[in-house]
Design goal:
5 helices, elongated
Length: 214
């Protein structure tokens, strides 16, 4: 790995520390009766309302349509994610220190896999909350489900639900992009070195053959 690639990986690893400070994802709800909107942010270790009372208000609304209440302490992934991020940070810094090409590829692959698993798990969490409704719900609409979008906006009854990456999620994406850039630079440098070595070997074989023919 070149010095540039190692710096990129180190910066990528350090950027991941931002997810401990800023939320990963944001879900926002707007409706005529809530013109100011309601919302919650998903952090690496908890779920919070955009304001002090938003999470309670969302849980109260969910009660009417049979959705389960959102209790951060009951979500096991929120206890695991801080350790996963810590492992990625430590792994990235180790790759930058060692400068090993294959270690970089392994780290980036693990990063991509964990990110994909995280998004799938978030979608499944949303699906469970939006589809597994209580039969004792006050408001029942046959065939209706209330799963918010993974990303983008969606109409749910008279609410518009919007789901987007927050600053922590953006920093995680930028971290992966820097790691990918380091991997591309490393791959190109390795391929160029391999070609140069092949050309050198070809010239050496040619020179040996010419010498033998004299």
């Amino acid at each position: 790995m070149s010095k540039t690639s190692r710096i990129l990986v180190a910066v990528a690893a350090l950027l991941l520390l931002g997810v401990y400070v800023f939320p990963l994802w944001s879900v926002h709800l707007t409706a005529p009766q809530y013109p100011e909107g309601l919302g919650m942010t998903i952090h690496v270790n908890t779920v919070r309302g955009l304001t002090e009372f938003d999470l309670d208000k969302i849980n109260n609304l969910n009660h009417y349509i049979g959705m389960k209440e959102i209790h951060p302490d009951a979500i096991p992934e929120l206890r695991i994610m801080p350790w996963i991020v810590a492992a990625l940070v430590a792994g990235g810094l180790l790759v930058a220190a060692l400068g090993r090409r294959r270690a970089l590829y392994a780290w980036l692959g693990a990063f991509a896999l964990l990110g994909l698993v995280g998004l799938i798990d978030f979608w499944k969490w949303e699906y469970d909350y939006g589809h597994n409704l209580s039969p004792d719900a006050i408001i029942k609409i046959p065939g209706m489900s209330y799963q918010p979008p993974l990303i983008g906006s969606k109409e749910l009854l008279n609410f518009t639900a919007s789901s987007w990456p927050a600053l922590g999620g953006v920093l995680a994406g930028l971290s992966f992009a820097l790691g990918a850039a380091a991997a591309v630079l490393t791959f190109r440098a390795h391929r160029a070195a391999s070609r140069l070595g092949e050309q050198s070997r070809t010239r050496a074989v040619g020179a040996t053959a010419a010498a033998a023919g004299r």
